[in-house]
Known about the structure:
Structural class: alpha/beta
Number of strands: 6
Number of helices: 7
Strand order of the largest sheet: 1-4-3
Helix content: 25-40%
Order of helices and strands: EEEEEHEHHHHHH
Largest sheet: 3 strands, mixed
Amino acid sequence: ARFGFRYSSSIYAPSGTLLQNTGVWELPVSTWKWGGRSVHIQAPRHFSMGLLLGGELPFGSSFVTGLSGLTVLRSIENALKAGCSPVIFLHPYELARPEDWPGRIRGDLLRNPLLLPFLADKSGFLKQLIGNFPVSPLGAWLDEAIRGGCQDG
Length: 153
């Protein structure tokens, strides 16, 4: 807050979750929860096996988009039908690659194969997202959420 930030998306939580901490709104990257379990939201809340075992799939993460963009598109549709505006996150390098991309990533990929879903070119996913759903910047999402909220989050 002291640096002028109005919002952050540094945690994962069910679509429609909106938190405020020390003057900064947290707009979490969207998860889909199953099993009817209530979710306790407390930072830090990272993408982890604990999150998955706790009954949440972080469909707003670019990792899950890299594994199954179709599942993410269905999850977005379901969240919107429930009256929620999901938060989806893509890294710039997933849409446009620097010239030295292969050399930069090769060593990292050998050390950590879980990076593989991040390597998928997500420009097709983004085209489908923009073509099929209402899309807005996070600031607009925040204004909408403060006014109306989500029916199931």
